[in-house]
Design goal:
- The protein has about 100 residues and is mainly alpha-helical.
- The protein has a domain at about 65-95.
- Helices cover about 25% and strands about 5% of the residues.
- It has 2 helices and 2 strands; from the N terminus they run ββαα.
- The protein has a two-stranded antiparallel ribbon with strand order 1-2.
- Helix 1 crosses helix 2.
- It is rod-shaped, with a radius of gyration of 32 Å.
């Protein structure tokens, strides 16, 4: 079937770009109007902070030590044997009464 009447023509507007290289006069995308970004409450799809996220505070502070290989082996063996962390074993051994 042949189309009748005058074909619809849309007025083409030359694209304008801002200093960052983004097109600034874009009103629709393939005929679908773009939303007004001033009225849209958009959130990023990933990243950012969430309530309750992250490592929970333990009150402990990280410390970097340089220990001999023999001492490290001893700490690791004791931690493995007792089912504890190396930090727990080191803290027990360093605790002052």
């Amino acid at each position: 079937m042949k189309p009748t009447g005058k074909p619809k023509t849309t007025k083409r507007v030359a694209p304008l770009f801002d200093k960052d290289g983004f097109q600034s006069n874009l009103k629709d995308l393939n005929g679908t109007p773009l939303p007004n970004l001033a009225k849209v409450n958009a959130r990023p799809l990933w990243g950012g902070s969430r309530d309750g996220a992250g490592r929970k505070p333990t009150g402990r502070q990280p410390v970097m030590l340089r220990l001999s290989p023999k001492t490290v082996r001893s700490l690791r063996a004791a931690a493995r044997k007792q089912g504890k962390t190396i930090s727990d074993i080191a803290e027990e051994r360093l605790a002052v009464a």
